[in-house]
Amino acid sequence: MSGGSLDGSLVVAGRRIAGTGGALRAIDPSTGATLEPVFDLAGVEQVDLAAAAADGAVDALRATEPRDRAALLEAIASGLEHRAASLIARAGQETALPSERLEGELARTTGQLRAFAALLGDPAGADLRIDRGGDGPDLRQRRIGIGPVAVFGASNFPSRSRRPAATRPRPSPPAARWWSSRTRRIRAPRRSRRKRSPRRCVRSGCRPAPSRRCSVRAR
């Protein structure tokens, strides 16, 4: 998003480049209309370029002070909040979800960023351990960044159709529920058919059961 508008280009190492992996358009699920702009898809060359740029930035970012990395995360959260109106409007077009739900998604994202920023400011977050070796060298351990991480974003983010209820397909029962219920029926233990010994009437001692006129119930 550049200047508050989408241009569909890729951003790799701080530069906007065109993708060679094809293109796609977003679709409004409530109307079926295609949305602008056309998004470039990354090809093998762009993926390799992004991976190399991320790998080259690891050492420099790891050498920074924790407060500098915390400030970076805080700046990202603030930038998202600054563009909240346009982000929520666009997400609403692509998913047909209500603005309240999307506002919650945005708040969850910024909250996670600030939580990690607070962790960087906490000395306990580094999990520093020092094992004094006496006359020998000390053994020291702390947490460090592991390097670039590839994130596979969900391509099936839930969308809500705004079609009338009468035209919506009725959901079928989950297969897992049907199978579990069928499994329970198959595995249900059979009732024992063993003949029980006849009960004795507590008044007259008759077998196998008291007559219907007996007022004392058998035990």
UniProtKB/TrEMBL annotation:
Compositionally biased region (Low complexity): 166-181
All residue ranges annotated as the Aldehyde dehydrogenase domain in the record: 23-158
Biased composition (Basic residues): 182-202
Highest taxon listed in the record's lineage: Bacteria
Pfam family, any one: Aldedh
Keywords: Oxidoreductase
Chain residue ranges for the region called Disordered: 155-219
UniProt key word Oxidoreductase: yes
Statement: the UniProt record of this protein carries the keyword Oxidoreductase: yes
Protein name per Swiss-Prot or TrEMBL: Aldehyde dehydrogenase domain-containing protein
Annotated organism of origin: Arenivirga flava
